[in-house]
Amino acid sequence: MRVEGRERATHGFEKAPDGWHLVEIDEGIDYAKDKETGAIRESKKGDKQHNITFVIHDDEDIANGSKIFYSIWENNSGEQTIADILAATGQYKKFAEKFPGDISVFDINVMSMIKIKLPGQFLKIRTELDKAGYPKVKETATVSFDPAKDEKAKGKGKDKAADKAETKTAAKSDEW
User: In whole angstroms, how far apart are CA 94 and each of 21, 89, 142, 155?
Assistant: First the structure.
């Protein structure tokens, strides 16, 4: 058989604990849509919502393989968040060169490229559980970032991926 059965195994959804995680951006970056109508979700101000899914990739992380869903709104904060994710994956400079000037990351052409270039990219994220017990992304950083050194000063969660950081590459490909 392709895989060997385990006498004891954990199955199902595993929530990522508070702290830093080495993650890969998953396929399917898109607008958030209403489950019943299929309409794009919008805030009262008319800001559209986008979803990015991260998958934890660290054999030593208790939540290895878990998905973390990140909702980003089309506003100034969301614009900065996308730019920070691009920077953490090593893609920001390429995007800035391809889309110079005063162009929003939410421009249809930029988002089309983001949907192609970001899946498969690695970065680190720091999560905190919300009141309902779901992980919320609080910080992003490059794969080479060492949270263990930074955590001593800030007193935040432990680094789950320090030993794995050097084995993963931030960029999947330099080709455009």
Answer: 25, 11, 16, 34
